[in-house]
Design brief:
- The protein starts with a helix and ends with a helix.
- The chain has 2 domains: about 100 residues, Winged helix-like DNA-binding domain superfamily/Winged helix DNA-binding domain (Arc Repressor Mutant, subunit A, Orthogonal Bundle); about 80 residues.
- It is mainly α.
- α1 packs across α2.
- The chain is flat, with a radius of gyration of 20 Å.
- It is built from 8 helices and 3 strands, in the order αβααββααααα.
- Strands 1-3-2 form a 3-stranded antiparallel beta sheet.
């Protein structure tokens, strides 16, 4: 999913490789640790596909000085990557990365992804609650029981948080439909936009 992260950051503004790595660490650092050894090969793949392009053609410019911009092909690829999972099985471990770029999705797609995440966590909560009952039945050591109890509480809190997001999305969508407003296109975030507070607390 490094490609999704790179394209999402380049939607904000052109960046050179060093700045991309810095932004990946600052904005997505909760779940990303990116080395130049993985960044530049990914940029080359994206450039080969026409998803990104260099702003300079100077062959003497170092990789760190070469700025990259997203292209129309990259814009389409970014949305396709972001919407993956809305119509089928979503890769749950990548949900947080998608959430960081939710502002670029249509409201109905955001709701669909949030609902799928919620369903996944509800299944996870059921499993955790069964584990907790088993731990109590076999009188597991207090640390194991406490760890399982913590997992139950954390998952339940995440579900409640997702329910709030879904409720807010549906209310905003219903309000726009009632007012007869056409769907609003996603707006790019400011260049210094930080990771959403909700994601930081996830």
């Amino acid at each position: 999913m490094l490609e999704l992260a790179i394209l999402g950051l380049l939607k904000e503004r052109p960046m050179h490789g060093y700045e991309l790595r810095k932004q990946l660490g600052q904005k997505l650092g909760l779940f990303w640790t990116v080395s130049f050894g993985s960044l530049y090969p990914t940029l080359r793949r994206l450039e080969k596909r026409g998803a990104v392009a260099k702003l300079t053609s100077d062959p003497q410019a170092s990789r760190r000085k070469q700025e990259y911009r997203i292209t129309e092909v990259g814009e389409r690829e970014f949305i396709e990557l972001l919407e993956e999972g809305a119509g089928g099985g979503v890769e749950q471990e990548k949900f947080s990365l998608r959430l960081a770029f939710f502002r670029y999705l249509r409201p109905e797609i955001r709701i669909r992804l949030l609902e799928r995440r919620k369903a996944y966590l509800e299944d996870k909560l059921d499993e955790a609650q069964r584990s907790l009952r088993r731990a109590r039945n076999i009188r597991a050591d207090p640390y194991t029981t406490s760890l399982v109890r913590h997992g139950v509480a954390t998952t339940a809190a995440d579900i409640a948080w997702l329910e709030e997001l879904i409720t807010a999305e549906r209310a905003a969508l219903a309000e726009r439909e009632a007012e007869g407003d056409p769907p609003q296109p996603p707006q790019p975030a400011p260049a210094d936009n930080a990771l959403p507070t909700e994601l930081q607390n996830q």
